[in-house]
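User: Predict the full complex structure for these chains.
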Amino acid sequence: MPELPEVETVRRGLTQLVAGATIDHVDVYYPKMVRPDAEIFTADLIGRKIEKIDRRGKYLLFRFSGDLTLISHLRMEGKYDVQPEGSPIPKHTHVIFHLKDQRELRYNDTRKFGRMRLVKTGTEATELKSLAQMGPEPTESALTLAYMQRVFGKSHKIVKPFLLDQSKIAGLGNIYVDEVLWLSKINPLTPADTLTQAQLSVLRQNIIAEIARAIQGHGTTVHTFSTAFGETGDFQNELHVYGHEGEPCERCGTEIVKIKVAQRGTHFCPHCQPYPPEMQEGLVDD
DNA sequence: AGGAGTGTTAGTAA
DNA sequence: GTTACTAACACTCC
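Assistant: Here is the predicted structure of the three-chain assembly.
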């Protein structure tokens, strides 16, 4: 479930719940999930204090005492929650961080896609290529129009997978890409380097504003996302196209369609987001 | 039974 | 080097 707004929502919840807590010991029930090997992973964490929790793109970065950082990616269904010591362990709980205050920080992940890496603080980029190559955060200061013009201008990749590429802009996923393209009236099949300066400017503003709004709404719950407090997000009520196939476009009434683009379900309004010129060649018009 | 799902990476081909 | 498509990861839900 987690794109940047959901990961940020989790980060804020976890900060309230476990920042300042100290690890007593750690149990790993699905060893493939962690690196280095579970034995080293668990041994290194004993007695460490969770000093703070950062985020970069869709990665959570738990900062521990003694210059240790846990890099955690939730992938599709990863979730953290905090439970009293000894509560029943659900089927899909894969890692438990036992805290010294009789609570447990638990990682749950139905599909087991999530991954954790324990590294020395400061070596994150060396240890993880995707962190080293991560594009700017979608904020007013980090995502400049000049940057947008430069990177879009040199790629002929169509804009949907372009925006999903974390090395271009950090944190966007399938839901918010569809939403910002609808807000910007850009067809998902448009090649990145054919967008006009005006379109890039509009797209940039919509990305920045939409991500900020989604964070304010505590993220989007479409399948099973919940915050660290076990609550759902609110932003699913603010979606315009994702999950709205067959419904009328809020702007023009045309039926929202769903197609496959770059192997991902893609929702858009065929009237507000017309196909780019090079795709319309050969189409019969009146 | 078959397909799709909020993500990412590896492999292959053009 | 770039783009595009497939498979894989593992599991649930419709």
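The longest helix of chain A spans residues 197-216.
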